[in-house]
Fold each of these.
Amino acid sequence: MAWSPRRSAGRRLQLPLLCLLLQGATAILFAVFVRYNRETDAALWHWGNHSDADNEFYFRYPSECGRSGQGQRVVWPLPFDLGDEREFCRCRMINADFCAGAVLISFGAILGKTGPVQLLLMALLEVVLFGLNEFVLLSLLEVKDAGGSMTIHTFGAYFGLILSRVLYRPQLEKSKHRQGSVYHSDLFAMIGTIFLWLFWPSFNSAPSALGDGQHRTTLNTYYSLTASTLSTFALSALVGGDGRLDMVHVQNAALAGGVVVGTSAEMMLTPFGALAAGFLAGAISTLGYKFLTPILESKLKVQDTCGVHNLHGMPGVLGALLGVLVAGLATHEAYGDGLKSVFPLIAEGQRSATSQAMHQLFGLFVTLTFASVGGGLGGLLLRVPILDSPPDAQCYEDQIYWEVPGEHEHLAQVSEETETQA
Amino acid sequence: MAWSPRRSAGRRLQLPLLCLLLQGATAILFAVFVRYNRETDAALWHWGNHSDADNEFYFRYPSECGRSGQGQRVVWPLPFDLGDEREFCRCRMINADFCAGAVLISFGAILGKTGPVQLLLMALLEVVLFGLNEFVLLSLLEVKDAGGSMTIHTFGAYFGLILSRVLYRPQLEKSKHRQGSVYHSDLFAMIGTIFLWLFWPSFNSAPSALGDGQHRTTLNTYYSLTASTLSTFALSALVGGDGRLDMVHVQNAALAGGVVVGTSAEMMLTPFGALAAGFLAGAISTLGYKFLTPILESKLKVQDTCGVHNLHGMPGVLGALLGVLVAGLATHEAYGDGLKSVFPLIAEGQRSATSQAMHQLFGLFVTLTFASVGGGLGGLLLRVPILDSPPDAQCYEDQIYWEVPGEHEHLAQVSEETETQA
Amino acid sequence: MAWSPRRSAGRRLQLPLLCLLLQGATAILFAVFVRYNRETDAALWHWGNHSDADNEFYFRYPSECGRSGQGQRVVWPLPFDLGDEREFCRCRMINADFCAGAVLISFGAILGKTGPVQLLLMALLEVVLFGLNEFVLLSLLEVKDAGGSMTIHTFGAYFGLILSRVLYRPQLEKSKHRQGSVYHSDLFAMIGTIFLWLFWPSFNSAPSALGDGQHRTTLNTYYSLTASTLSTFALSALVGGDGRLDMVHVQNAALAGGVVVGTSAEMMLTPFGALAAGFLAGAISTLGYKFLTPILESKLKVQDTCGVHNLHGMPGVLGALLGVLVAGLATHEAYGDGLKSVFPLIAEGQRSATSQAMHQLFGLFVTLTFASVGGGLGGLLLRVPILDSPPDAQCYEDQIYWEVPGEHEHLAQVSEETETQA
């Protein structure tokens, strides 16, 4: 257990002090700015009592606060709002959730090579940039991105990848043997994959319009997920040694179908379109794990711990482009009166379908720019030498930051016991 | 890692090519036949705008598309429909889910002794037969089977078991040592049991009628599950060596209560009836694992990898018979106006309760026939020699079809590291 | 596998016979007393058909049967009711669920040192006392406790701790080496933590009033959980050896925020209040694991297997006191017309806010009394010598009560196979 040299008091205190600082700052912001909104406050909710209150409560809120609605205000990903309406509702929680998703994706690129303090600082920076990027896309450009192919996946992935590039460690092969997957952990990780698979349709459809919008988003996401699962198995066996499947591909690429329809699932993508998109995403993602990740590391010096480029980066960009295509094909015939909820600006005649498509494309570039510049800045921030980052030889090692009981001990006990019995 | 001899190119390509073929066929069928239905299509949904649309949307759909409704069309388990109404809705997804359940049950009988290509081919055949059997039962015989004691559990189990009989391997004991449960895997499998337990009430009640029907189905399923859990613990300790409990029993038989009320949970089974049924199912299932499985293998040459005969076969048949009994006892007094939604033909006077019971019983025989003939055909199909099935000595072994990192490596590293430190 | 000496037939039969006895008793009670209620019975539900039945069904039930409603009858935690209304509804299931939660908490204090028969007997006693305590609190004192800081957490924890005190084993260090956490099990246990974290907001809000009440409870619980998570990480690193985090703290103390707002989450706690409460609970809980648990064991002779005192005991009491405070601060201004659903007696003028606070405080004392006396009685009951409790040297050992396949075997096989290949 004597792996790591003793850390200095300064380094040991970084994590607790940063946690306490963030907690304190949040508490102050909450005390000053956050109030219950009408749906949550006992007095406001019961004021001017509505005849059919219960129903309205449940049925009105999603359309009111959906990311798909028109005329949104700046919605801060952290659950407070500096505007003059100091209120807070569940839709903000969903938004905060989405922002947390982007941060988790970025974590995937740098996990194991960074300490907890670095991860927290990165999260702090990313949350702010996520909010800005989302504001530009959804409120200024009025781009559609319900499931976040751009705002969550593309942004999170490239933010993390650029950051990982800045933190490049040429000596990382010293820790390489610890990065490989382990039989038990692989089974364990499949639980995560299964739950992500199951809940991805809800995830994509949560902020889309109630009714046909949510229904359509859910179904398109399911179609796409099934297609990406099948193409992952096909491609994994095709490129695997001796035709064998790779657990890492299945754990990840099977989910690419959810990422790729993030923008277009609420549009009239058609069931066939969803299938085709998912198939393509699964294939690209699997091939990425096999062929691109090693090149990224050796040529571009991007060390992508969990392969977020394959699951979130490429499928996210593909999803954004798919959104451009499907938005450009939008017609009054295909959407009928539903055009108002999916593309309000086209319905009102303020934009043509082609113009909406161009805005979508521009939104992708904005996202990539925010992600790259932000990731670069983040990398520089995380290279500040006083931060407690692990040495090259101890990356991917729990024991630096965690008290690990170790199965060695356990196995030792077992054999001890066996001897005692004998 | 040199377990398996190198596979020929032909065998290595079977899985990817079959996946791609199925994906392509599905895509073509989707392109030609599948369209969004009224609840999913932007134009259709908004057409002829309804005053109270949101509510109606949520409240009407289950009764419209429930398996419990009258006058159903053929509902294909694969999510497309060759009829003239080319539409698709969530109820089809539930149906597809149920079909997938039957296939997973059949997998349980042959897992470890078959390759992925064989499993895919089996699934293809079973999906077609599942659809035919369900059509005969629900639409021709107008049998009630909301939770699928017959259509899912009995069909899936006996299809798999007959198939396993045809694939009988006399030399399987060469791989026997790999089939036993392992401490860590047993804990892991309990996660699956817990989630199945929790969601079984939703599973059984999903296709039953909204309102009292779903409520009753949920409660009956809970009662039955608790009773089967208790009887599993009782019986497992009673028949276990030295009064000890067996994890395999708990993982499986505790769920038998959900299977046994699959047909009758939506009927007026009464809380006591649900308890009694669950108790019986848990007991039969536990005893089956202890006494029947070895006999099935040695005498009837049915090698049942996961014991699906105990969890799905016997409790499924028992559930079908329970449905016969409860249907036969249906009276206008007990159901009141609710008779219309549970037994529409009795309510309309087209059938007596006894006649409905006879139809239910006949439904069981139809299911067993479909399962047996189908399983036999499936077995013959899977014995085609070019299929990539594992040799007798390598059954229950991941490494033939999967790239396995192996804990050996990991343990080796650990000891290596320890030495390095020392 | 020859760890344990052979058990006598009498001891071996205790568990199955007790299970069968309980099952039989429940069945008789169900047969005599339990009937479907209006929402579940086919005839009752359809009788006097209501125009807008579906909606009413869904929207009325929670307010009718919520623990927050006034004028509740005695609600038995076991799903039957001896009153003259022999009916049963979902709210009873939620109640039974909550009662099961209290029993599981008590299990946490004595796990590993007791046999299954002892656990069952304890559960039987605790269920009765839980029902009595809840009746006194909710119906006689008309105390508010939606999420059960008092009725579930405080009661369950101190019942188990006092019981563990009575069962004190001075020689337990013989089994101490088996109690430590293991790397794989720690990862595995995190699944449980994650699901508890995710569903805690639903848990706390399930019995609170529909509308603003449930919404507020959900949000307060989320805020509190996030704060306790952050404070757990801060404190764990602060008190950990060399600034390292402890998995046991994270698994448990991160949930303390859910416990601490159990009473007050449905009140106007304010977002800041929820943050502060969660922060405090996470800190106390983490410090408890580090410093208090060893003292409890060495000085007070309370052997608390899972540390329920830290996760449920102290945060539960803190939550009850927080409820006293927030109830005492209730004003007509803050709650408006919502006061009727949160504090009906204050709204009707029967109690002042201060009086309600005093009742809340008295409720805590009642709970502690019930828990202490009940735990003491339970301990005496469980010390009856004929019960099959594990000897001191075999505590925390699965193999006494379970057939354990053992990873030894598996590892043996692996090495055997490797040799065979070599």
Note: Chain C is about 65% helix and 0% strand.
Amino acid sequence: MKLLAPSNRLRRTWWSDAVEAAGVSAYTVYNKTLLPVVFDSISEDCRHLKTAVQIWDVACERQIRIEGPDADALMQRLTPRDLERVKPGKCAYVPICDVNGGMLNDPVALQPRPGVWWISLADSDLALWVEGVAMGGGYDVSVSEPDVQILGLQGPLATELAAEVFGEETREIPFFGFLWLPFGDGEVLVARSGYSKQGGFEIYVPDAGLAMPLWDRLWAAGEQHDIRAGCPNAIERIEGGMLSYGNDMNRADTPFEAGLGRYVQRYDCIGGAALRAHTQVRQIVAIELSEAPPVCDREWALMDGDVQAGRVRSAAWSDEFQCGVAVGMVGMDWGPGDRLTCVTQDSEITAEIRERFWR
Amino acid sequence: MKLLAPSNRLRRTWWSDAVEAAGVSAYTVYNKTLLPVVFDSISEDCRHLKTAVQIWDVACERQIRIEGPDADALMQRLTPRDLERVKPGKCAYVPICDVNGGMLNDPVALQPRPGVWWISLADSDLALWVEGVAMGGGYDVSVSEPDVQILGLQGPLATELAAEVFGEETREIPFFGFLWLPFGDGEVLVARSGYSKQGGFEIYVPDAGLAMPLWDRLWAAGEQHDIRAGCPNAIERIEGGMLSYGNDMNRADTPFEAGLGRYVQRYDCIGGAALRAHTQVRQIVAIELSEAPPVCDREWALMDGDVQAGRVRSAAWSDEFQCGVAVGMVGMDWGPGDRLTCVTQDSEITAEIRERFWR
């Protein structure tokens, strides 16, 4: 690995100092913001995530705020997800598509209060798109990027810890539900969500003054639960089939191809006509590799003899399942049980398409 | 410095393998693409840049292509620069603003052939904005991101080397002029431009098959000129007053505040009304620091006693000028000769506003 040269252009977060004190060893850059990727090692970080509780600086999930008389109409114009079915107090995973149905982002949206939307972004400057659409369509809204930063709490002991810090009512928050809860002299929005399959919360912090007191409080209360600083883990998220925008899918892929067809519920949105007429030619699949892959820093071809069946876009070695775990995109002619050859930058590895992800 | 964790989401370029073989030690991430930042050290890289010639992988300057009947009209809608004054065969620096006149990007645009525009991006997903505006305004255009990657050739010996590789006519290319020139079995666009004050070229390579042959040819011909792999250099670019979008200015700043008022030539563009009504409240200035600053990984306050006069956004130590060199943004009440205190993460440094940059 090479070093990451710091600069003012790459945002530090309210917790970067704490993350560095806790021993982060590698970052990535996500929405021009530092995102921790490794503390001890990704395999040790993964083992710990599955057994205890971790505190994650995921402030790189930048927020877009849309408010005004046409906020609901604009939101529905942006996504094929039917937002009328999203109940108050619930988060919604909302693929955002271009006119061709290509994925521009796959954020989580919620209404922190009636008439206001927050969109919690994957890695693209979606605000530019939202503002361009709003301006062009004459929507009466204001679009901004509020400085709301997210602290994640993930792992099997996250519910216990959240109950101690925020109160027993956090136990009753359903998956993808959220509550505003008092903290310090303010409030934070606590959502049961997050980028692991171990359970936990994302805490939307709307005020820099609450940021380090929250970190410190969680850390102190978490000591008895073996709390550590952590981060989205490449192994665990692939085992769980959690997709990464920019890695596993991008603008060249539709929600159907990305395995997100169940979120295409209406066609009166941007890209709707293309999605209605869409014929799916490839699919996201779980891929098992026979040996430990090298670092997946580029796409790898999946070959069926001389024919390219598709490509692998994310991969890691799983200690738990004792195999390489990968996310692939393959043509519709291939399916579970098919054995292919994965051509990495270093070697060729036997790959098998699985029925489903590991978790 | 921490490590940069590689992933498929962070694009490698056609030259990343060559850059690594040449000994890159640190990257940044720019438009989700790897951009080399340090080879030996920034001071040694700087010294060499000023004396010889360097080959730069600046493929992170991603391209947007706009073509179609309304391409010219859309381009003019996007920028306050008067594009009618831009002659064929010339590049144009075109600030792009939002409705408030805030800078969304400061790309270089050119017409590789009549009726087609390429926009060579600074660090933001401007294609999302351009497409949103085009869709909303009903412009008859197609907008795409072609895989055209740029190889830079910078340094006092760049002209000599370019003449040897591309022919004597490259000597006649004026500043910000360009020519299509044959290379291998194709053509490359050679522009006299680039992100240093040492002179040189940016070579737009429209075909992956030409990429490494071009690198190898330049490298071989450059040996007698002490060619090295290099990159935009933080010291040299600050000495020369070359601004960095995301570091020195961003959406919160107008072109006037960023010192780019001379490019505001028309007001019939997005943001035009705001720019016409604009009252400038701050200004970009050169700042001399009395000692070597720490790494500028965040904004530093510039204090005039107890009053904040502004902030420093980029800084480095200059061996040539034997002082700290910095880019600041200060209120209109301050000017050349004013002595301020720069508050970094480590210490307080004496700072003086200069009349102009060093080069």
Note: The domain at 238-353 of chain A is CATH 2.40.30.110 (Elongation Factor Tu (Ef-tu); domain 3).
